[in-house]
């Protein structure tokens, strides 16, 4: 059973790579039009130390941004979940903020915090990823059925106790759902800054150098490395979800 | 006898877009210590408002609610509540659901003592062996049994129930009436039961209060003069049947359909 659970996604990835290789081969594309999977190992071998260093750069800044997004998003969600006034006041602001294309913010940040590349990258990863968390926590709290509040409220429990013992755990499944979206968004934020801002670091900068040098296999190798990191972080969230909100998963049948 | 629950001249209205909506009008209810008071009335007559007032979760516009000789102004630790929705916390096992009030009311109590109390109650309602199950693994009736255990685990002096058996099928409901009767014999609480089931009110109640249509006041009080160790069969005996007829007529009046019924 567990064997099958691991084998299925691996087989699907292999099938995807085979299809990719096949399409490139059938069309007879040279690798400066479209690299094929068989071009990639050479790129990884040649630049392995860069991949290691830059992957780490990308990963830690994404995780840092995400961590701030979790703290801030949860806090914002709490405020919006408990107060209708806060909800009315904050929603238009948040939606507007979220609608602004983040690529346009990169130069603004670069000017505001000149040279603070790590800071800017973490900030962008945070800015792009907190919105789903805030919304889901807010909705989870504001839709809490009154009886759930009353079972402890009738005993004189404080608002904080009701939040800690009931509202927070009850919102966890929605929270993790949002976190899965935020993980991928945070990667986009990190890479945006890495690619757009001058003298960037991380996989985004490696991608840019591949572009500058016309090294197409390197560019595709970076994309695959990014996808790999995304999958890695996603499953880290899934593992956390299993630990903290595993109760929400119903047994099939 | 001392009235443990004393509702004096309570009037309450909700604010709506179309102006105030009066739900309770100069309501008086007295429940002596240890008695079981069933409240029936047409739907939407303010029965649930009544539970929130007694629990101290709301304040009435006028009038007073007294519990145990003290005026209710805020929630008290000596109240237990059960609702139509069993409100089980899915992330806790059944026994951890039951001990929840103790975590608020008796934080100094040891975990072992909490579990012992909960196990005792779960056994009384026939849930022995289900302590570590998740709520989703239990049937609706079993969840409601666990919910009743949670409502009385901290030995409240008042148990407030808002149609706790309303969502159950008839046979399960009758089973739970008998469970309620047994709990009452074992635990010394005074109870208010909101229901729209007249048979339930007669089977469980020491008195049945019929509320008028909205805004509700006390339209009729029936003393249920039946022995404490009732069985379901008693509902088919003439004395109980007569009571049910009286209540049925009162509900008809409360609904304002006195004329059309005849």
From TrEMBL, chain A:
GO BP annotations listed: transmembrane transport
Phylogenetic placement of the source organism: Bacteria, Pseudomonadati, Pseudomonadota, Alphaproteobacteria, Rhodobacterales
Main location: membrane
Keywords, sorted A to Z: Cell membrane, Membrane, Transmembrane, Transmembrane helix, Transport
InterPro entries on file: MetI-like (IPR000515), MetI-like_sf (IPR035906)
Domain ABC transmembrane type-1: 55-241
Membrane topology field: Multi-pass membrane protein
Protein name: ABC transporter permease
Entry-linked Pfam families: BPD_transp_1
Regions crossing the membrane: 59-82, 89-116, 122-144, 175-196, 216-240
GO cellular component: a single term: plasma membrane
Family (UniProt): Belongs to the binding-protein-dependent transport system permease family.
Subcellular location: Cell membrane
From TrEMBL, chain B:
Keywords: ATP-binding, Nucleotide-binding, Transport
Annotated SMART domains: AAA (SM00382)
Residues of the ABC transporter domain: 5-238
GO molecular function, one term: ATP hydrolysis activity
Top-level taxon: Bacteria
Matches recorded under PANTHER family: ALIPHATIC SULFONATES IMPORT ATP-BINDING PROTEIN SSUB, TAURINE IMPORT ATP-BINDING PROTEIN-RELATED
Family the UniProt entry places it in: Belongs to the ABC transporter superfamily.
Entry protein name: ABC transporter ATPase
Source organism of the structure: Thioclava pacifica DSM 10166
């Amino acid at each position: 059973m567990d064997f099958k659970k691991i084998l299925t996604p691996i087989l699907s990835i292999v099938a995807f790579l085979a299809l990719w290789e096949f399409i490139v081969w059938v069309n007879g594309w040279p690798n400066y039009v479209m690299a094929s999977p068989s071009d990639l190992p050479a790129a990884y071998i040649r630049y392995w130390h860069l991949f290691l260093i830059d992957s780490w750069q990308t990963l830690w800044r994404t995780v840092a941004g995400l961590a701030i997004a979790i703290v801030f998003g949860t806090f914002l969600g709490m405020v919006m979940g408990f107060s209708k006034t806060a909800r009315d006041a904050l929603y238009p602001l948040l939606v507007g903020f979220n609608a602004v294309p983040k690529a346009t913010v990169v130069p603004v940040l670069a000017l505001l915090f000149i040279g603070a590349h790590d800071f800017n990258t973490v900030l962008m990863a945070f800015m792009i990823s907190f919105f789903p968390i805030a919304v889901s926590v807010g909705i989870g709290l504001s839709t809490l059925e009154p009886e759930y509040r009353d079972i402890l409220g009738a005993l004189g429990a404080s608002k904080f106790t009701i939040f800690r013992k009931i509202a927070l755990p009850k919102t966890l499944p929605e929270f993790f759902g949002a976190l899965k979206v935020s993980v991928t968004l945070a990667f986009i934020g990190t890479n945006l800054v890495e690619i757009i801002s001058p003298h960037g670091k991380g996989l985004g900068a490696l991608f840019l150098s591949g572009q500058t040098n016309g090294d197409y296999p390197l560019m595709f190798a970076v994309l695959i490395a990014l996808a790999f990191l995304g999958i890695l972080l996603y499953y880290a969230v899934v593992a956390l979800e299993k630990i903290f909100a595993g109760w929400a998963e119903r047994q099939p049948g | 006898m001392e009235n443990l629950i004393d509702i004096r001249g309570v009037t309450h209205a909700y604010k709506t877009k179309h102006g105030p909506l009066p739900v309770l009008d100069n309501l008086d209810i007295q429940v002596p210590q240890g008695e079981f008071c069933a409240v029936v009335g047409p739907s939407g007559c303010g029965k649930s408002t009544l539970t929130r007032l007694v629990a101290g979760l709301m304040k009435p516009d006028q009038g007073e609610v007294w519990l145990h000789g003290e005026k209710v102004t805020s929630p008290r630790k000596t109240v237990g509540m059960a609702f139509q929705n069993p409100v089980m916390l899915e992330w806790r096992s059944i026994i951890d659901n039951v001990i929840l009030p103790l975590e608020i009311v008796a934080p100094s109590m040891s975990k072992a003592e909490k579990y012992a109390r909960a196990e005792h109650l779960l056994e009384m309602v026939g849930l022995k062996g289900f302590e570590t199950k998740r709520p989703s693994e239990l049937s609706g009736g079993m969840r409601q049994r666990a919910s009743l255990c949670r409502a009385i685990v901290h030995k409240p002096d008042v148990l407030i129930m808002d149609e706790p058996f309303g969502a159950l099928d008839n046979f399960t409901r009758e089973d739970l009436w008998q469970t309620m009767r047994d709990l009452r014999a074992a635990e010394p609480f005074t109870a208010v039961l909101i229901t729209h089931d007249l048979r339930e009110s007669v089977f469980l109640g020491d008195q049945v209060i019929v509320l008028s249509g909205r805004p509700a006041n006390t339209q009729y009080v029936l003393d249920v003069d039946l022995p404490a160790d009732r069985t379901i069969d008693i509902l088919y005996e003439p004395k109980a049947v007569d009571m049910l007829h009286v209540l049925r007529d009162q509900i008809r009046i409360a609904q304002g359909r006195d004329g059309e019924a005849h």
